[in-house]
Amino acid sequence: MIQLLISIILYCLSGALDAFMDTIKDHYSVSKFKNYNPYFWCPAVSWKNKYIDNNPSKGHRTFTVFGIKFNYPDALTDAWHIAKIFREGCNILAIVVAFTIQYRTTHIEVFIALIVLFGVFRNLCFNLFYNKILV
Predict the structure, then answer these.
(1) Strand runs labelled E in the chain
(2) Are 135 and 32 contacting, i.e. CB atoms less than 8 angstroms apart?
(3) At what angle do helices 107-128 and 79-98 cross, to 10 degrees?
């Protein structure tokens, strides 16, 4: 049953990260992050970090490896995108860990129970962070 606890914790963390993303996107000016560098923390501004000189008309920032030019990963340019990577990682790990649990019931019962359990805990975490902790 430790796998179930780990899975729930990961999915709760996903909810907290989702709340973080919505908070900085929708309420940056009143959030706990309002005094931090908006060019990294405020998605209304930070989305431009993926472009040369923060100017979309100049094209994506690039780097070269062994003579091959690559776009700089958008996912590493600001707090919102970094949180998104971690949120999706938590979702995937929660699912993978949940499927390693040995159950003594039918798969459909487990599936329904996990959807309800995960949904309740994730939404509780989302609301706690979005409405109380981050603003």
Answers:
(1) 62-65, 68-71
(2) yes
(3) 150
Nearest-angstrom CA–CA distance, 116 and 11? 12
Q: In the numeric block, which tokens belong to residue 87? A: 């949120």
Cα separation, 90 vs 4, in Å, equals 14
pTM of the entire predicted model: 0.78
Q: pLDDT (tens digit, 9 = 90+) per residue, 19-45? A: 999 999 999 999 999 999 999 999 999
Residue 78 has pLDDT above 90, yes or no: yes
Q: State how far the alpha carbon of 83 is from the alpha carbons of 20, 22, 86, in Å.
A: 8, 11, 5
> Would you list the DSSP string of 98-111?
HTTS--SS-HHHHH
Six-digit token string for 95: 């699912």
